[in-house]
Amino acid sequence: MIISQELLSASQIAVRDCMGAKQNEKILIVTDEPLRTLGYALWEAVKSFGNNVLLTEILPRKSNGEEPPDEIAELMKKFDIVFCPTSKSLTHTDARRNASALGARIATLPGVTEEIMIRCMNADYHAIAKRTFALCALMEKTSVIRVTSPAGTDIFMPIKGRTAHASSGLFHKKGESGNLPTGEAYLAPLEHQSNGVVVVDGSMAGVGIVQTPITITVNNGYATEISGGEEAKKFKQLLEPHGKDAYNVAEFGIGTNDKAIITGKIIEDEKVMGTIHIAFGDNKSMGGTVRVASHLDGLVKLPTVWFDEQMIMKDGKFLI
Question: Are residues 78 and 201 located together in one domain of the fold?
Fold first, then answer.
């Protein structure tokens, strides 16, 4: 397999800078056929630093959050660093959570393309980290987040007491994990308490770029009505097999990566600076109580955001 020099360089940044790989650390790469090229690029990058590395390929999962095979889940516990370049996300799985709890540093790269890897891994992750941690500190002093947008979003999400998470791109401490490429501050709103309307006008996980906005009515923490065009139909089809928990308001996040652009791949889209995303489904990975094999993020463009009474973003521009 031929790996371009640009992709190899981006992969080396992921190994050396983002994960802070040390010489004696063992590294596992879990990939699948659609992302095999990225899996091999990371393998080559790790080899170039002289680390002990194992690459394994699984069959693609059916949904974001579906568990990998038990054997892979056990394998993930035995390594210092784990990369998961897979077509469906392993972020919100017990396999990832259990390996993190034992100290593995884990980077999930769901659906990442060569173009996304090259563009976003060349961002200044120290600047992204500073931005992201500052937002997390503010969120943890907040009781209620409100978001409005020109497309019609108007939602209140109580968050008091919830821990905010910084996907800063620097995962150097035992047990740290997040997406690569990355750049977002996020948390799980309190279950059963969010109310309002979310209008997804950027992109939706599993659907892609949204041409006709998806309007989602939220009552007491659940999506109760979904309307729009073909994208709304597709979104409903993705939710239906997983039952009521898939409709749970799972996440509020703010993008902090100034290199990211909207491409229809949610792994990049949700990191775009000047956007927010609201996800439905599993929130256990971020301190919530809902475990379901589905986690779907919807991107809102040009948002105005309040942390309690403080407006921290207006029409997609940070005020802080």
Answer: no
